[in-house]
Predict the 3D structure of the following.
Amino acid sequence: MCHDKVDASSTLFGSTNALLQSAADAGSSSADGASSEASLRVDEGGVAAESAAADMAKLQSRNYRLTVTSNSTESFVEPLASPSANRQASVSTGLSQLPTLSNRGLAYGDGFFTTMRVDKGQICWQAKHLQRIRTHAQALSLALDHALLTQLQAVLSEHARQLGLGVMKLIVTRVPQSIRGYGFTDLETGSDCEYWLQVSPDAPNVSSSVMTESASLTLPDATEVQMQMPIKASCLTSKIACLPSLLAGLKTLNRLDSVMASAELQRCKSASPLNPPTEGLVKDMGGDWVEGTMSNVFYRLKDSQHAHKGHWYTPPITRSGVAGVMRSVIIEGFADSEKPVIERYLTDKDLPHITQMFFCNAVRGVMPVAQLALDENMLLGLLPIDSESLTAVIT
């Protein structure tokens, strides 16, 4: 179930069909060195990935490398000038390549990523993902001008069409620099990028309900979002970092704190094989609960304990956490209602007063929490979530 509102972020990238046609036409000319235009090259490779399907069959996950080139020469060190208004970006197909030790994403986490669910050949919430790509590139001083963004959209749309059903993960990194160490040449147009795309027919460890229309949740603005079966969640002891305002909310490649939190969640699963948690709630270094290991979180409190009756809360993403695609969809879905979502940190004192909670991300949709393990000895039962209860006042 994919729903995208037509807005400025979706129309900015122009027509996809014409660009895909020009991409196909440009393939042979770029390969033989005849092209002098800036291009976005696709390098294809395949790796075997274990499917989460019941039969455990091995499905093929395909990896692609998209590289900016100019005058038929790859530009890995010297930044590439932005294409002029009368020059078109194009796509050609070449041999597969692996990241080298000079890749700044591998060496420093210098880049960002976005993970997209694909259903019926379309990228779900495509406009939101494109908006993330654009804003993250601007924040990190990466050069993604209109021509390259338009072509990138065309490439992603074409892969989604061929995939049909599954998950795509796009990684964008800064190209290697002539400056030694962490530094980079800070040009007004930004640094050139390397693009890495993984296309998976199925998302590992994601239940089939994510990829079907068997369950949905209708937001106050009539937007429908995917909803999974209720889950158990655990409060973890791991904490994520507080970040400078420039980086807070970005989905950068620096995710070691989330890696360690996810490792703790796996230990919780092993310790409770009969009723394992699906997600873990984590604090930041400021001491407040801010998100899940792989998702954002929304919650409601007993109305007798708080003045905002019937409102949903979500922790702010001003010092830590990720400003998720689905988080944005849900906040916008409540924006014009009588009870808009309120950004508010979740504290230790709030935990016993939670009545409803759900986690969410762009791949899994909404994950209602039926049980929240506050610690090893205390399990909090929560009320179910459906479209009607989203705006109901709970006393």
